[in-house]
Amino acid sequence: MTEPAASNLPSRRTGRFIKVLSRTLHFTFKQPLRLYFLLFHGLRVEGARHCPRKGGCVVVSNHQSFYDPPLVGVALPRMLIYTPRATLKASWFYRIVTRGLDLEPVARDGRDVGAARRMIERVRDGEVLVLFPEQTRTRDGSLGTITPGFHMIAAHAPAPVLPVLIEGAFEAWPRTDKRPHWGRRIRIRVGPPLEVKDLKRDEAARRVEAALLALGAKTRAAAPAEPTN
Length: 229
What we know:
The chain has 229 residues and is an alpha/beta fold. The chain has one domain: Glycerol-3-phosphate (1)-acyltransferase (3-Layer(aba) Sandwich). Helix content is 38%, strand content 11%. The chain contains 7 helices and 6 strands. It has helices at 9-41, 68-75, 92-98, 113-124, 149-156, 169-172, 201-214, and strands at 44-46, 57-61, 80-82, 128-131, 161-167, 187-190. It has a 6-stranded mixed β-sheet, sandwiched between helices. The termini are far apart.
């Protein structure tokens, strides 16, 4: 058996260190974050039992607010891998906030083949990946177009897709505001896992959209007006 190339050792060691550090940060801040959302937003979580306790999984959630990643993190009982858009790395604030986190940045155009392969392998190895298939935060509280990029990962791993609906985070912290509005209630509903490996990508997207609507997602016609201060 050949030894790994010396040039690869630093990156592998760095990768292992980031995973350990990220897990430590996750379990250190999960309960304080849960308490914050409970006290300031009356957080309620329904259906967390649907989250598989072991094995790979792809979480697909609607995207309402800056709050969404930590909300999904406190709602589900698993360690999660997030997939922020790659362009966020240009922000110094983003780099400070996410330093030490094990992330898989992705390009919006879907052309990052290397990232796709890494995500498939991680899910295949039993990790839980979080995707926001609308690709951007809602502007009016309604559910946007569900893009089918999650299908490639779930189908090739293969792994179940877990639909998660966030409700109230738009009112609590819309994209146009610089600070959250305490007192606005947030609810999270988790649906049963979906198997999509035998579906075509567009059918998988429709299945996820239907699951989110069944959990209570608002359509554009039913969305509330953007909250004001």
